[in-house]
User: What shape does this take?
Amino acid sequence: MSGILFLAHRLPFPPDRGDKIRSHHVLKALARLAPVHVGCFAESVADRQHEHELAQVAASHCMPLRRKPLVLAGVEALVRNEPVSLAAFRHAGLQRWVNGVLATGDIDTAYLFSGQMGQYLSREWPGRVIADLVDVDSAKFEAYAAQGRGVARWVNRREARLLAREEARLAERAERTLLVSEAEAALLRSRAPGARSIEALGNGIDAALYDPASVTAHAGVRDLPGPHLLFTGQMDYAPNVAAALRTIERLLPAIRAVHPDAMF
Assistant: This one.
């Protein structure tokens, strides 16, 4: 195998949130197969302290700081008739770097982590494309629109429609499109009938590292009744909020019917 171009919307280090855990381990697996050239974004100046970890894995990398204001991205998206998500992650410097890496002729595979990064590959590039969309983002914005009102509803409905178009385009372009679950894969198949191959690649867990027998309970819960259920996630993200509320309102009562002292 020749080199791999890996494009991600966030720096895959450290693996401290859902999408970064996935991109982190995918990147390390790819690096065992071939030299990987990584283009990604830093979300803050603090991300720079992890750039050396990226450099240890990547054959080369480009990591600009994403600082485009959302208002500017919105204006660009309106002018171009595209999703705001694409405009927000467009960066001229990263595009030049991608063009330069591909111009060497040493890359035969591009791994796109998230739909925002598909815009960096020209339609004429002849190599293999793997699109890891993780989930169907357009469905998320459809849900936001259904719950919203006024301008917010219009913005989210527009984003959902244009993102669905981009997701279908990528699925038709890619040799293989990956989603985090079979349910997400089935949803995208229904929206992209011209796709070449849509499959589920689930997330795993290091069962040895997280074996309860080898972990000391936190002092705050050690003496409390149980069993204990833990939900960890970015709680400024609406789907995570919905998942936590569903657990509290629908699942926990059923669990307590069997385990009265269960705590969430």
